[in-house]
Give the backbone structure.
Amino acid sequence: MDLMQKLTLLTEGAKYDAACTSSGTERPGNSGLGSTLAAGCCHSFSADGRCVTLLKVLMTNSCIYDCRYCVNRRSNDIPRAAFLPDELADLTIEFYRRNYIEGLFLSSGVLKSPDHTMELLISVLSALRYKHDFWGYIHVKTIPGASPALISRLGHLADRISVNIELPSEESLKVLAPDKTKQSILTPMAQIASEIQSGSKELAHYKNAPRFAPAGQATQMIIGASPESDFQILKLSAGLYGKYKLKRVFYSAYIPAVQDSLLPSPDTKPPLLREHRFYQADWLMRYYKFDANEILSEKNPNFNPYLDPKANWAVGNIHLFPVDVNRASLKNLLRIPGVGPTGARRIVTARRTGALRFEDLKRMGIVLKRAQFFILASGYTPPLRMNRETTIRALIDPGVFSFGAEQLSFFAPGPLFLPGAGDVCCMDEAVKEAVSCLSASL
Amino acid sequence: MPVGQPLAQPRDVVYIYDGSIPGFYSCVYKSVHARELPLAIFPRDRVQPTLWPQKPVDTDDASACRVRSAIFKKISPRALELSQNVLFSCMRQKEIHLLRFLLKGFSEGKKITNMLGDPDVAPLLRAESHLLRERHLLLGFVRFSDAGGALTATITPKNFILPYIAGHFASRFSGEDFLIYDKTHNAALIYQNGKKQIIKTDGFTPPDVSKKEAYYRSLWKQFYDTVAIAARDNPKCRMSHMPKRYWENMVEMQDQI
């Protein structure tokens, strides 16, 4: 099999992995090849709008496991291939030199045994680091069930190392990934977390101590293949961020790749809107200091399809508004719909030089379409404060209708049962219906 | 200086300078000393026809240097950084905007750069972030071709970002020789034997594509096409992250223009 065919097959097998970031560690170039940027760097964007930053491939798509949701499952009849370690290292170098990529994202099916596969991954990474003197970004997935010594070696070669949690609960794991257990996933995760921590301690003592995964660890789970509620999943990520100090949790909308009686049928559309809401909520937890319990609750266990989680929170806590931009703390500024970390920081800087008026905010690049209903500024009070309908019209996520009616039906019908875009003839009408329905129920 | 009198008063005059950075600072020097605020400042090669009298301003390194150190000391280091960035940006009529900002800065002092909503400051900050954003995008979008060991690339940015990407590429590819040609500004960044320099150039003909180069391009194109998930197709999203004007220089996008 030639390299072109291998690359195609092994990219095909890896592309459903959501993670494609190259952030988390700043390493200036040295005499070898490559460097990394703390903010990461996108090199291209594929036709689905996702960033392409790393050469994302599998070492092999052969697998001894039979996870039901996976394209590479043992029982799936597809052509199999594997890279030779040197072949993959050379390809990475040639792509990197042309500035196509920021580094390598290596994952793999399980060939023969977890430890055997780990040895293969280690041979690619050590060829890159020591034979080619390559110091670009490397993100690697450990293999579930691998021995701790091999995980430790792999982590010392990579920038980021991750274990996929795959599914949001133990029950789903049992049903859909019978070869994996909660234990086999959480044990390496805990080992990585403790090695990262002790690594940074060593570094405080010895400047040249070898670093273990300086960009931290990440994980990903599949959304929409199993029946957990949004609240359960969000609590799980909050726990992972807290307990295992993860840098990122990725959510991947389930894309039916195989026919299986236990999974959604192959003609289901991926729940992209639901996935989008998870990323919004995840951002609220990481950058806006929200707690998972503020975003969702036992009583409201699922995301509102029409409002993004922050707008939803604001509408539910309307008594905390309006917020005075000239006085509020940074934490409270971050609660205003439409104001993000950059905007909030700008407000804090600019108000030191004088009271801010509405026009000042506009010139500073604060997006006021939604914020205008929630703020006080010098000489400004929100218009139509009591008019719920206007507020909600401005808050409705315009993206909701572009995702299509199938997306709305992914949300469990709760007390808030709204018409999907398919039920009404045009966008305007859909918005109108949603507005009247929402403002009545809130 | 009499208290309360502005540094410069509006005057019906247009300054013409040579387009260089010391040239612009010489205009600032002249404006402050002649106590006049011109209507516009144009570089010599882009003079727009006006009815107002034009006044050529000679570039004088000594006065440019004095202005620079005055900005650094009397306003702030950040103000000097901002004005350098704006001079490299593609902002329209950046010279006159910048002059107004500097005059205001000389009277307000260092707090000027925190006055983010001020009508004389906000447009400069916008121009600056436009430049820095384009710089960040191009760190990823530059596409090198290997021509017998040396790497070459062509870019067409709106802002003059070569000085801003030079350090990144020199550090990342410290063992390579490379050239990045900026077609918009007719300049090239050359990195050879560990030394980097930016030169003015009238043109650059990319070397012929070797067999090996064509092979890696096709592998990359294949990877790029394969990694997209058809069920999530979203060309609009791609376009907003990767504006179409960059596509002409990107191997994987050239067939889609």
Summary: Residues 412-425 of chain A have pLDDT under 50 and may be disordered. Residues 179 and 226 of chain A are 17 Å apart (CA to CA).
